[in-house]
Write a structure and sequence with these properties.
Length: 234
């Protein structure tokens, strides 16, 4: 996946500075950075400069450092001594663990689907439609973002704010994994139809088949990504 032009993600964050809440500024900055990672605008290994971020948001370096600490706990940023702060990379072991936890949360989403409110189903459909529109426009990085939103929405069927928070953090890490794939189109295109199928099964109330489809889907995706990691291993 191509790395966005330098500074584009920083400009987006700077545009949001007026919405910062003084009582939770570091947490809000962490949210903004996490969102840039989730949308694929910050790639693994990219440097995040403390002074540039502080200037863009008009906040102190201490506040930026606290935001960095929050994201380091989520494995999204890493501090390298005498070098700076960089977007993290997910290891092969980390990838396996991500899928282990995703299965717990997303399978539970399907199981809770019979009791989920219409708004929760609407988020699943919206993500599917966003992916299909992005594919039609040839915007494959946006297809990747829509796929992230789809899986957030699947876990969101649980109806738990804690699950929502957990899946957001996990899927931000997953977006870092997407960068390991050589061709965004080649990776994402086959899953568009599978997202649509899961949505359609949920819409007609076939929850058992939707769970079987999701199990197969996650197994296939993990196998594909793990193979890409093995190919890149020294």
């Amino acid at each position: 996946m191509p790395v966005p032009a330098q500074g584009s993600w920083l400009a987006d964050i700077a545009a949001a500075r007026h919405g910062l809440d003084r009582t939770s500024t570091a947490g809000r900055i962490a949210d903004l950075l996490r969102e840039q990672i989730t949308e694929g605008r910050l790639a693994p290994g990219e440097r995040v400069r403390e002074e540039e971020l502080g200037e863009a948001l008009k906040v102190s370096r201490n506040t930026v450092r606290e935001a960095f600490r929050l994201l380091a706990k989520e494995r999204l940023l890493v501090h390298e001594f005498n070098r700076g702060v960089f977007v993290g990379r997910v290891t092969a072991e980390g990838l396996a663990d991500l899928y282990r936890v995703r299965r717990i949360l997303e399978y539970e989403g399907i199981r809770c689907a019979p009791q989920a409110p219409p708004a929760a189903f609407a988020r699943v459909e919206a993500a599917v439609l966003a992916g299909e529109r992005a594919a039609a426009a040839g915007s494959w990085p946006d297809v990747g973002t829509a796929d992230i939103r789809f899986h957030e929405a699947i876990a969101g069927l649980v109806g738990s704010p804690r699950v929502d928070e957990m899946i957001r953090h996990l899927l931000a890490e997953m977006r870092l994994v997407f960068h390991e794939m050589g061709s965004p189109r080649e990776f994402h295109e086959p899953y568009l139809a599978r997202n649509r199928r899961i949505h359609d099964l949920l819409a007609r109330g076939d929850f058992a088949e939707a769970e079987r489809e999701l199990r197969s889907y996650l197994d296939d995706a993990e196998f594909q990504l793990s193979a890409a990691y093995r190919e890149k291993a020294p």
